[in-house]
Amino acid sequence: MLGLFTPSRKQSLTGLSAVVTGGSRGLGLVIAEQLVLRRCAVTIAARDGEELDRAREYLTRGRTGAAVRTVRCDVTERSQVSALMGEAAQAQGGLDVVVANAGIIQVAPLDALGPEDFASASGTIFMGSVHTALEALPWLRRSPAGGRLALVGSVGGLVAAPHLLPYSCAKFAVAGLAEGLHAELAGSSVSVTAVHPGLMRTGSHLAAEFGGQHRREFGWFSAAAGSPLLSMDARRAAARIVTAVERRRTRIVLTPAAKAADLGRGVAPVLTTKLTGLMSRALPSAPFEGDASPMTPGREVEEEADQGLPPVWRRLRTWGSALNDRASARLNQRGPRPGHTAG
């Protein structure tokens, strides 16, 4: 029947039109890079115009014929997302692929968080995904190739992560949105892929915000996110994500640790919850009243991150952060041109 998805529909992404929200740095940037490498016409969207300019330079450097556009867009504002989709469709002759990736990360114990932190995470991560999906769908339904929508969740949206509660709550909502959209669109020309990455070496520790004992929170998060034992190379992750979208997979979970956590929650949910409780006890406690710092960006915390840390923590942070620190400059987290390491 005309308009219904069938396996014979075009699988290759070559020549298709794509939009990536949160595409100026980190995971969004390397997802956009993979789409460019697969010869898509790509529009990347983010709030920071300077970041977008650097990202566009990176995506087009040395790539003759690469079609990359940038649009400033705050995904918490539905009108801006509507304008983004319309501009991209008009410039690129329609929309075939949309990746909802925009997000924020707040790292802090519960006692250092307030309702505003949950609202901020929900507004950007969940409502940003809702706005992106609702505004993209009318265009994706018109795609001759059959539209593809990907929502980037997280292992934190499959298993609640301690000291990441606003983030986890918002990512759980994204997971529900992806499953619901897949059901609602079953039999249509649009496929929906739920993406649940584990820790990746994207330099996200510099873009995240830290509260409570912010130096110690930065220490454990940057070490874990950069550890070769726990995290995954960002470009490798992006390649697998885009392949999953290309093949119209329903769901992809990345990193062995994330897969183990997902399996554990399904098979032994009570035990998994107890284990996350034990993890929480190993993390920095909330400071005494009056000693807590406001939420502070990782770029600001980094300069003083080792002050006051026990020697063991300091060595662990230095070792674990090494790969992530290098990724931060490559993936536009620090400010210099992406693709160039600092120093």
Automatic annotation (TrEMBL):
Domain Ketoreductase, first and last residues per copy: 16-198
Gene3D superfamilies per record: NAD(P)-binding Rossmann-like Domain
GO cellular component terms, A-Z: membrane
CDD domains cross-referenced by the UniProt entry: SDR_c
InterPro entries, per the entry: KR_dom (IPR057326), NAD(P)-bd_dom_sf (IPR036291), Sc_DH/Rdtase_CS (IPR020904), SDR_fam (IPR002347)
Keyword Oxidoreductase: yes
Top-level taxon: Bacteria
Alphabetical keyword list: Oxidoreductase
Gene Ontology molecular functions: oxidoreductase activity
Region ranges (Disordered): 285-310
Family, per entry: Belongs to the short-chain dehydrogenases/reductases (SDR) family.
The name this protein goes by in its record: Short-subunit dehydrogenase
Source organism: Actinacidiphila cocklensis
